[in-house]
Design goal:
By secondary structure, the chain is an alpha+beta fold. About 45% of the residues lie in helices and about 20% in strands. Strands 2-1-3-4 form a four-stranded mixed β-sheet, with helices on both faces. It starts with a strand and ends with a helix.
């Protein structure tokens, strides 16, 4: 079972957000942290996307990373976290 949920947008046009999405997913993969992806552009995932927007208080900024229903942060949170703090998610 995936440990984290990463809210992305496959249709994001902002270069920085696109690069940050890719880097975040690569970092989680490299750390063997399992995750589910919710695509904010996918109409079939609109309801869950809006629920995550409600939790984070952030709309239209990607990626957004969640542990269950807890908003952890975006790319900056992941990038600035210590690896020791992140590997806890790999152990669940």
């Amino acid at each position: 079972e995936a440990c984290l949920t990463v809210l992305i947008s496959k249709g994001v046009y902002d270069y920085t957000q696109k690069a940050n999405q890719k880097a975040a997913l690569m970092m989680l993969t490299d750390l063997c942290i399992s995750y589910n992806i919710v695509d904010g552009m996918d109409p079939s995932q609109r309801e869950i996307r809006n629920a995550f927007f409600e939790i984070s208080g952030v709309r239209g900024n990607y990626p957004q990373i969640f542990s269950g229903k807890r908003f952890l942060g975006g790319y900056d949170w992941l990038h600035n976290s210590k690896i020791e703090d992140l590997v806890q998610f790999a152990r669940k």
